[in-house]
């Protein structure tokens, strides 16, 4: 199984890349985590938010593969405890396919992208900065994997 984090946004600060890379490199090949950066839609005073979101949706749709189990990150999604995430990770592994976890742009995700989701996951009721979400997701996936392996990291 491959985990793919499809994240709208590019040119992240070095600390984001370092944090994401630190946790993704800890995962084994049979649970590899890959980051796919999606160009944000163009936003300006003369263009609409909807147009930018459509551009992001088009790019996300192209990055999602037909066999991907799509999970969207959204405030209104289901909050999982770390042990529940570990169970989700095990379920995804048992399904045998790859998982695409989607982080939308600054205005969220369009309804057509949300409709592709098999699961909707909420990290928090708080609004988190998108760069930080990348690091949190990578760390939590590593933590979930460590639980499944009986690794002491989770303690």
UniProtKB/TrEMBL annotation:
Write the record's keywords in alphabetical order, separated by commas: Cytoplasm, Methyltransferase, rRNA processing, S-adenosyl-L-methionine, Transferase
Cellular component, GO annotation: cytoplasm
Q: Could you give the subunit structure recorded for this chain?
A: Homodimer.
* Family indicated by similarity: Belongs to the RNA methyltransferase RlmH family.
State if Transmembrane helix is listed as a keyword: no
Q: What does the function comment of this entry state?
A: Specifically methylates the pseudouridine at position 1915 (m3Psi1915) in 23S rRNA.
Q: Can you tell which superkingdom this protein's organism belongs to?
A: Bacteria
| EC number(s) per entry | 2.1.1.177
Record's InterPro entries? Alpha/beta_knot_MTases, RlmH-like, tRNA_m1G_MTases_N
Transcription regulation as UniProt keyword: no
Q: Which reaction does it catalyse?
A: pseudouridine(1915) in 23S rRNA + S-adenosyl-L-methionine = N(3)-methylpseudouridine(1915) in 23S rRNA + S-adenosyl-L-homocysteine + H(+)
Where is this protein chiefly located? cytoplasm
Provide the binding site for S-adenosyl-L-methionine. 73, 104, 123-128
One term of GO molecular function = rRNA (pseudouridine-N3-)-methyltransferase activity
Gene that this sequence comes from: rlmH
Q: Which organism is it from?
A: Bacterioplanes sanyensis
Its localization reads: Cytoplasm
Transmembrane ranges, per UniProt, are none
The protein's name in its UniProt record: Ribosomal RNA large subunit methyltransferase H
């Amino acid at each position: 199984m491959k985990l793919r984090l499809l994240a709208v946004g590019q040119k992240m600060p070095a600390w984001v890349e370092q944090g994401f890379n630190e946790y993704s490199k800890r995962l084994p090949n049979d649970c590899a985590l890959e980051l796919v950066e999606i160009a944000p839609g163009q936003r300006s005073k003369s263009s609409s938010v909807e147009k930018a979101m459509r551009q992001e949706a088009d790019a996300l749709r192209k990055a999602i593969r037909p066999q991907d189990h799509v999970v969207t990150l959204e405030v209104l999604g289901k909050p999982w405890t770390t042990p529940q995430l570990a169970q989700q990770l095990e379920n995804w592994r048992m399904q045998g396919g790859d998982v695409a976890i989607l982080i939308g742009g600054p205005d969220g995700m369009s309804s057509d992208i949300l409709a592709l989701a098999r699961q909707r996951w909420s990290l928090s009721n708080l609004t988190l900065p998108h760069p930080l979400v990348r690091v949190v997701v990578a760390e939590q996936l590593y933590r979930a994997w460590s639980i499944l392996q009986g690794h002491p990291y989770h303690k």
